[in-house]
Amino acid sequence: MSTTRRHLNRGVGIILFWVIFAGIFLAYSQGVFKYCSDNTLKVHGSYNRGWINSKRVPEGGLDAVMLGDSECYSAISPMQLWNEYGVTSFNYAQSGQKIQETYFMLRNIFDNSQPKAVFLETNLLYRKQNRLDMVQSSLDELASYVIPGGGVRLHDTWKVMCGQAPQKTPEYKGFYLNNKVKASKYLDYMDKDKKRSAHISRTVDWYSDRIIELCKENGAELILISTPSTRNWNYTRHEVTEDFAAGKGITYIDLNTIDKSELNIDWNTDTKDGGDHLNVSGAQRVTEWFGRYIDKNYDFADKRQDADYSEWNSIYDEYNGKITPMINRIRSAGKK
Predict the structure, then answer these.
(1) What is the DSSP string of 243-293?
(2) Residues 6 or more apart from 241 whose CB is under 8 A from it?
(3) d(Cα 266, Cα 257) in Å, to the nearest integer?
(4) Complete domains list, the chain, with CATH
(5) Fewest CB atoms within 10 Å of the CB: 9, 25, 106, 145?
(6) CA angle at residue 247 from 242 to 249, to 5 degrees?
(7) Which residues are paired to 172 by β-bridges?
(8) Which residue from 91, 86, 120, 84 is spatially nearest to 103, judged by alpha carbons?
(9) Cβ contact 281:323 at 8 Å
(10) How far apart are CA 242 and CA 261, in angstroms?
């Protein structure tokens, strides 16, 4: 056999190997995603649930979406927005969300829907990453977006999920019910005289520009929003974020500075962990304010009587049956 023919056969063999490998990996990747997608309540600690949801095609489309970390999914309830205004929304926040995740998740979302309002919770703007973490996370998120299925991102998740019972706390369009109560002691957290360090990294700045461009390309408005937190927020962060938003030409809402007559958060009852995250009582107050803002600033159709959205009413009935007793119990205990 000639040298040329041997080289040709070797080349064909290598190509065939990679074609077969790619086919097997893609089949595995799609299978992993389907398993995780069908069993999201088994996904540990709410991490990756937002990403999985961002890959799905929402029925009927979405008016608004929320992204961020656990501050966000503890504070804004899409089902309450549905019940009060007939607005379709989804909270794609997930634990420890990084700005790279936000960008690529938003690309997933726009691939599957066309929301006109994108709310980004600002705690993730201050998530620290060293250079290696930044590069690795960027490459991981790019690969997870480009390669179909969940083989890249979920390669370890399915192992944990196998044989594991579903989480006891369900999520409703990305919002998590939590009825724990632990009062906050840090009531002066927004004191203007308390100067703290606050810095937005170049990585966050770069990805923020990409997110703004992505929203503009898809006809959506990006709004930064800081949900109430005595642990994660302070006046210095407020000022830095305000300047950051002004420099980008985008709207910024800080619910930590809203007058108490508009947003009556009770730090004795409305937090689950000493002011870090809100519980269902605090989230109900925040979402009530949030709904008024959306109703005032957007012309979304009320879809509550639309037969195509009947599933939303069914989900709300289940949601309401769980959350109403929780809130009543929390607030009744707070009056004693």
Answers:
(1) HHHHHHT-EEEETTSS-TTTS---TTTSBSSTTSSB-HHHHHHHHHHHHHH
(2) 122, 125, 200, 224, 226, 252, 254
(3) 14
(4) 3-335 (3.40.50.1110)
(5) 9
(6) 95
(7) 175
(8) 120
(9) no
(10) 22
CA distance 273 to 33: 33
3-class state of residue 17 by DSSP? helix
Residue 90: strand, helix, or coil: strand
Distance CA 291, CA 297 (A): 10
Q: Could you give the residue ranges of the DSSP H alpha helices within the chain?
A: 3-38, 49-54, 70-73, 78-85, 99-112, 131-146, 157-161, 202-217, 235-248, 280-297, 310-335
Query: Distance between CA 212 and CA 170 in Å, rounded?
Result: 32
CB-based contacts of 229: which residues, under 8 Å, 6+ apart?
A: 71, 123, 256, 275, 276, 277, 278
Can you give the pLDDT of all 336 residues of the chain as single tens digits? 566 666 556 665 666 655 565 555 555 555 555 555 555 555 544 566 776 777 676 777 899 999 999 999 999 999 999 999 999 999 999 889 999 999 999 999 999 999 999 999 999 999 988 777 776 666 666 666 565 555 445 555 555 555 555 554 466 999 999 999 999 999 999 999 888 889 999 999 999 999 999 999 999 999 999 999 999 999 999 999 999 999 999 999 999 999 988 999 999 999 999 999 999 999 999 999 999 999 999 999 999 999 999 999 999 999 999 999 999 999 998 666
Tokens found for residue 305: 């009587």
pTM summary value: 0.85
